[in-house]
Amino acid sequence: MDYRCETRGDRFLVSISGVLTFDDHEKFRQVVAEIADCAPATVELSLATTRMIDSAGIGMLLLANDKAGRCGKSLRLSGVTGHVAKVIELSKIDQLIPVD
C-alpha cells in the first residue's frame, strides 16, 4: 500500500494505491492519524488505484471511519471499481461508509 494525502478545498483527500491487506496495518495507522489531524471536516478515501483489498483492509476502512466520526468528520469512499467494488459489495461496508 502506498498513499498520498492532500487538502482540496473543503475536503481532505487520501489516495490509496496498490493492495490493502493485513500487512499494511502499520502504515494505515499513519493514514488514520492524518485523518484525525486534518482541518477539513470531509474526508475522501480514493480507492481508484487500489487493486485489491482483503477482510483486514475492510477492517482498516472501518477504523478510519470510526476515527473520522470521533473527530467530527465524515468519511466517504470513491473510485471503487473491479475487485475492490466486489469486496465492498460483499462486505456491505457501503451501508456504513458512503461510496461515491
UniProtKB/TrEMBL annotation:
Protein name: Anti-sigma-factor antagonist
Recorded superkingdom: Bacteria
Domain STAS positions: 1-100
Gene Ontology terms for molecular function: anti-sigma factor antagonist activity
InterPro entries, alphabetized: MlaB-like_STAS (IPR058548), STAS_dom (IPR002645), STAS_dom_sf (IPR036513)
